């Protein structure tokens, strides 16, 4: 073996670097364990960690401190650590409306409405591209020549410097796209700044999609207060100052005089019964349960038509919190509604760009020391604020004028202006906690978003569920690892020991490289690691079996090893099998989302490393033994003759197996047509909640109870899907109730309804706050939300991924073999996919675990495709070799011999793979059971199709041996 010292050098250097990278994880975990041991609660634990953050441990060749180690440790995904993952959609519609100065042109507004509808089914396209397409359709249908540079569209006065009146449509489109993309970039920077100030370790913030798409991914592992994060991310931070129109009797009289039925409200006879006069400078007080009715009136187009001109331009904004009736009294269930006015143009008296700095702190000048947000104005802002407060303080007389401080259309405070406020300092007070005040200051400090941002996909995993996932995954990993090590030594003796050493190094290299790349390890990632182990073992099995074959043909040990480690020996089969799997993983990496990408990343790195360790390192170990004049055993006395000299006539039974396969495939297709599949919210959209109870529950009883609460405004009931998820006291609740509405208020409404529905199954004294709290062990453990646009994206990408996987591996097989081989492999793979889908359909609702079709299932399908290909490619490689070695042997007999000769590898690998997956299936936790069940089926049908379908079809398509030789 040439260059063996180079191989050893690479392995030693790579091993040292990987140990160094992984040592940071060891050190950060050690410090956190010490902090937990020395603390009584989470606050003390954080204080200890803060005190140890910069303490240095010097080991000579490496120095550690906790802060540095934490940044370099192995990142754990949400499913292992808990936390939140969201996709934010910056509302490009709002940006277009702002750019067009809220144009009332019917073509413009119809195009926006049409773009909203189209994007739900074509979510992968940028909204701005869809808008232009719809605009041109509507313009043509109306036979209008309305250019984009028109003052009624984008040629407004505010855009005079960017868009000229004689610009062509193409020029304006590019200008608008550039402006939209720049504003989305600003939104990304603002959100990144907010996250930085939030102080999360290892946050992920990245833009998704194409230019102008407007989607931003935010992942915050380990975060405990997820509701706080949602508020932080979705706040537009549009700060405004308005004058409070307190004591306006004409406003009160107008609303009391309205007829609710005109606005489609039938359960309220008069608004006076729900809109009570306010004792403060707000105008009305409304109970929270009645705010939906008032909002329906306020949003109605009929309202302005009925309003007298004196109050038509007022703004009607709610308070940000329910009323507090006394200093230490709990919050009530009532919200204040303020009536506000601005300047002559109807704009706020002062905007948020006047604020230069903001900080959350306690009010040292107050006896109560309550939390406030202190603001420092810019020079221009201080001047305008001073002028405004001077005018209002002089105007008020005995009844002082008030200014409402409004953030995102919610009134945070409305202080009376007693005297001019000069110098540019101001405060916001509003019954905050200190954390809320600091969050609000951070939002203001980071700046406002150019448009509102909605959460269109969210996954929340509680820390307790994450820890359980770690425990179950660790058990599965250790069990798999021990089983593999024992089996390899039992079957291959010393060669098995070398394979095990290579395997240990493979895992070390894999984890070390993942840490250095900043990759995140999730449950699918762990499945990728274990699958990598199986693939690495397969490479060693192929080599060892080839050595055994050569030994039984009379070669000496050195000759047998030399042949096995050559391209004509085992290496071509190893490369072919790994390349087909890598192609599949690359497609997953491109088209997958979140955890599926993690699985693909792990698999790609692992497969490349497994080729290095199996082909080069194991040979290095063997040849070092030879240099010392020592022998190497490739079998034990028990396994020496296993599968040797097999003479099974596979070809004679091919028509029988064709019939069996066709019948099974027809049954599976029929089940798919009749029963269908259990599509998860990845493909349908909606919301899913994992809820744990104190005692075992019946899924049907829970579903019926929740159905009574999931009733919309029209009286329609929504039946949720409820399944036992793991233990009998844990369920997975999926609902399509208000699936197309993405507001946080709707998220909260649904959680409240689920709580009301399951209340009878919960402990008697459990409140909604306890049920939905982060970190709870009884209640909502995790939740996932997928909006309709995201579901459309996932469906499209999944179909593309499967098609490209088949096309990619088909082209590779065509490159390496002849077309008859390619058709045989594609037929075998298609059979495997149909059987897996069919069994998932047949067993839907029958088996005691989840059989949902989600992104992880697509990953399983593509992995099975790769596995099935691997088996077939190994047989085809041997057929190709035998054609050269035995030119006169009939093709029928040759295929039988090649299949028999590789049977040891096929059975050995299949058993190893099956046992590996079975252990993960048993111990790996509920979240990956469906994934692993698909893999279990895949191993069985993949082995079957490689032996009984692929090579037989190749034979029937080959007219003679010459056809098969052209490969």
UniProtKB/TrEMBL annotation:
Residues 186-245 form the Protein translocase subunit SecDF P1 domain. Belongs to the SecD/SecF family. SecF subfamily. Belongs to the SecD/SecF family. SecD subfamily. GO terms for cellular component: plasma membrane. GO terms for molecular function: protein-transporting ATPase activity. It comes from Moheibacter sediminis. Forms a complex with SecF. Part of the essential Sec protein translocation apparatus which comprises SecA, SecYEG and auxiliary proteins SecDF. Other proteins may also be involved. Forms a complex with SecD. Part of the essential Sec protein translocation apparatus which comprises SecA, SecYEG and auxiliary proteins SecDF. Other proteins may also be involved. Its main location: membrane. Residues 452-620, 777-959 form the Protein export membrane protein SecD/SecF C-terminal domain. Keywords: Cell membrane, Membrane, Protein transport, Translocation, Transmembrane, Transmembrane helix, Transport. Residues 347-451 form the SecDF P1 head subdomain domain. InterPro entries: SecD, SecD/SecF_arch_bac, SecD/SecF_bac, SecD/SecF_CS, SecD_1st, SecD_SecF_C, SecD_SecF_C_bact, SecDF_P1_head. The chain crosses the membrane at residues 469-490, 497-519, 525-543, 564-592, 598-622, 656-674, 798-815, 822-843, 855-876, 906-924, 930-949. One of its GO terms (biological process) is intracellular protein transmembrane transport. Part of the Sec protein translocase complex. Interacts with the SecYEG preprotein conducting channel. SecDF uses the proton motive force (PMF) to complete protein translocation after the ATP-dependent function of SecA. This is Multifunctional fusion protein. It is found in: Cell membrane. It is a multi-pass membrane protein. Pfam families: Sec_GG, SecD_1st, SecD_SecF_C, SecDF_P1_head.
């Amino acid at each position: 073996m040439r260059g063996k010292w180079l191989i050893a050098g690479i392995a030693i250097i790579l091993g040292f670097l990987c140990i160094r990278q992984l040592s940071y994880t060891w050190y950060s975990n050690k410090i956190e364990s010490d902090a937990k041991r020395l603390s009584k609660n989470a606050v003390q634990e954080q204080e200890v960690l803060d005190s140890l953050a910069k303490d240095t441990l010097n080991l000579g060749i490496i120095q550690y401190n906790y802060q540095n180690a934490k940044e370099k440790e192995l990142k754990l995904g949400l499913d292992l650590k808990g936390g939140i993952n969201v996709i934010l959609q910056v509302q490009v519609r709002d940006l277009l409306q702002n750019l067009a100065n809220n144009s009332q042109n019917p073509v413009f507004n119809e195009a926006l409405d049409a773009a909203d509808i189209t994007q739900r089914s074509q979510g992968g396209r940028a909204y701005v591209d869809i808008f232009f397409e719809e605009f041109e359709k509507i313009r043509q249908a109306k036979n209008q020549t309305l250019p984009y540079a028109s003052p009624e569209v984008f040629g407004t006065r505010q855009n005079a410097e960017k868009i000229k009146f004689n610009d062509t449509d193409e020029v304006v489109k590019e200008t608008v796209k550039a402006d939209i993309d720049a504003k989305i970039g600003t939104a990304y920077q603002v959100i990144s700044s907010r996250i930085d100030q939030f102080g999360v370790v290892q946050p992920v913030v990245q833009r998704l999609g194409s230019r102008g798409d407007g989607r931003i991914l935010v992942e915050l592992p380990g975060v405990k207060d997820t509701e706080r994060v949602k508020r932080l991310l979705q706040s537009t931070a549009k700060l405004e100052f308005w004058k409070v129109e307190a004591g306006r009797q004409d406003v009160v009289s107008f609303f009391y005089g309205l007829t609710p039925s005109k606005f489609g409200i039938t359960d309220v006879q008069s608004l006076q019964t729900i809109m009570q006069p306010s004792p403060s400078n707000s105008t009305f007080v409304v109970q929270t349960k009645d705010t939906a009715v008032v909002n329906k009136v306020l949003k109605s187009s009929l309202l302005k038509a009925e309003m007298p001109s004196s109050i038509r331009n007022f703004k009607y904004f709610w308070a940000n919190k329910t009323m507090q009736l006394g200093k230490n009294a709990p919050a009530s269930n009532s919200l204040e509604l303020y009536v506000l006015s601005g300047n002559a143009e109807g704009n706020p008296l002062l905007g948020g760009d006047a604020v230069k700095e903001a900080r959350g702190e306690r009010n040292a000048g107050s006896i109560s020391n309550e939390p406030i947000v202190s603001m420092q104005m810019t020079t221009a802002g201080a001047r305008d604020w001073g002028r405004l407060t001077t005018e209002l303080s002089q105007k008020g007389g005995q009844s002082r004028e008030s200014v409402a401080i409004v953030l995102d259309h919610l009134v945070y405070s409305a202080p009376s202006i007693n005297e001019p406020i000069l110098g540019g300092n101001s405060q916001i007070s509003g019954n905050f906690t200190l954390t809320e005040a600091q969050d609000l200051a951070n939002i203001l400090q980071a700046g406002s978003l150019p448009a509102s941002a909605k959460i269109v996909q969210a996954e929340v995993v509680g820390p307790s569920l994450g820890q359980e996932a770690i425990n179950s995954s660790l058990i599965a990993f250790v069990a798999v690892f021990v089983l593999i090590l024992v089996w390899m030594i039992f079957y291959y003796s010393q060669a098995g020991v070398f394979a095990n050493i290579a395997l240990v190094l493979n895992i070390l290299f894999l984890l070390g490289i993942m840490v250095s790349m900043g990759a995140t390890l999730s449950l699918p990632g762990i499945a990728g690691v274990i699958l990598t182990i199986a693939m690495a073992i397969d490479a060693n099995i192929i080599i060892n079996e080839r050595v055994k074959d050569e030994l039984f043909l009379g070669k000496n040990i050195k000759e047998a090893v030399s042949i096995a480690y050559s391209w004509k020996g085992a290496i071509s089969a190893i490369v072919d099998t790994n390349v087909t799997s890598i192609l599949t993983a690359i497609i997953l990496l491109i088209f997958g989302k979140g955890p599926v990408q993690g699985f693909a990343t792990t698999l790609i790195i692992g497969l490349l490393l497994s080729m290095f360790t199996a082909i080069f390192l194991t040979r290095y170990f063997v040849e070092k033994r030879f240099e010392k004049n020592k022998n190497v055993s490739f079998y034990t006395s028990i396994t020496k003759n296993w599968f040797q000299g097999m003479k099974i006539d596979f070809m004679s039974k091919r028509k029988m197996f064709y019939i069996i396969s066709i019948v099974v495939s027809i049954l599976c297709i029929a089940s798919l047509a009749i029963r269908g599949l259990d599509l998860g919210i990845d493909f349908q959209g909606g919301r899913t909640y994992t809820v744990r109870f104190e005692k075992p529950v019946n899924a049907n009883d829970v579903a019926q109870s929740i159905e009574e609460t999931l009733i919309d405004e029209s009286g329609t009931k929504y039946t949720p899907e409820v399944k036992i998820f793991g233990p009998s006291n844990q369920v997975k609740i999926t609902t399509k109730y208000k699936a197309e509405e993405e507001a946080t208020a709707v998220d909260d409404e649904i959680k409240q309804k689920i709580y009301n529905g399951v209340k009878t199954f919960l402990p008697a004294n459990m409140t909604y706050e306890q049920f939905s709290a982060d970190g709870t062990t009884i209640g909502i453990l995790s939740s996932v939300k997928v909006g309709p646009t995201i579901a459309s994206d996932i469906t499209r990408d999944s179909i593309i991924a499967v098609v490209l996987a088949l096309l990619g591996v088909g082209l590779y097989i065509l490159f390496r073999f002849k077309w008859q081989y390619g058709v045989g492999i594609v037929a075998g793979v298609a059979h495997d996919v149909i059987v897996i889908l069919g069994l998932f359909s047949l067993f839907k609702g029958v088996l005691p675990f989840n059989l949902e079709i989600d992104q992880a299932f697509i990953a399983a399908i593509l992995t099975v495709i790769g596995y099935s290909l691997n088996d077939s490619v190994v047989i085809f490689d041997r057929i190709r070799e035998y054609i050269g070695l035995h030119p006169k042997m009939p093709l029928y007999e040759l295929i039988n011999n090649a299949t028999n000769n590789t049977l040891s590898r096929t059975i050995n690998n299949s058993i190893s793979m099956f046992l590996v997956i079975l252990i993960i299936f048993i111990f790996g936790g509920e979240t990956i059971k469906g994934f692993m069940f698909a893999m279990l089926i895949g191993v069985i049908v993949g082995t079957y199709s490689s032996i009984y379908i692929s090579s037989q079809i190749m034979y029937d398509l080959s007219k003679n041996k010459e056809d098969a030789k052209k490969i």
